[in-house]
Amino acid sequence: MVLPHSNKTITYAEYLTWTDERYCEALNGEIISMAPAPSPRHQDVVGGVYAAFRAHLKGATSKPFIAPIDVCLFAESNTPEQNIKDWVQPDLIIVCNPHIIGDKRIIGCPDFIAEVTSPSTFKNDRVRKFQAYAQAGVKEYWIIDPYHEFVETFILRGTVLERSGQYFLGDSVPCSLFSGFRLDLTELFGPAAQTEQLPEA
């Protein structure tokens, strides 16, 4: 695989021609992430959040998905792949509109996105992807920090994602989109968070 030069934009069609198994994310045609495989701690937390939402949404039209799955934020079903310049792989998404769930990817904006952050993804999660998610129209966005044991929630108001809450160990996190849902952070983070060291950036 030949990676594009840093000053060259890339399209989704070009990305699909890559022959290896490496994943990337791009905004406005610029690659913003080619992260290595996530840590066991990261995956444990993602799995816990997914399991909680999946249990709550059992039998519902809304469907949760976990990475890796391509989300073409601004695309429509008839958008040519060579015209797609924005795609991401959030840690967890929930799609309420089944019509944007394609055979191989999500075509359009999910209703809910959660990112499990780390020092290496901090800037993207809080700045670049944050802005793209607001622009695309994500209704609710969570940033989950498993090493400092807290969750920040944001709700879309107009075209801006505004912080709606900050939750710590011992709290339970509600979701504005799904009545009755609560995520228990003590259960989510568990004893592993007390012993695992913060990874290097």
TrEMBL record:
Under the heading Pfam families, the entry gives:
Uma2
Q: Where does the Putative restriction endonuclease domain start and stop, copy by copy?
A: 13-185
Q: Which UniProt keywords apply?
A: Endonuclease, Hydrolase, Nuclease
- Span-the-membrane segments of this chain are none
Question: What SUPFAM superfamilies does the database record attribute to this sequence?
Answer: Restriction endonuclease-like
Q: Which GO terms describe its molecular function?
A: endonuclease activity
Name by which UniProt lists this protein = Uma2 family endonuclease
State the organism of origin.
Paenibacillus chartarius
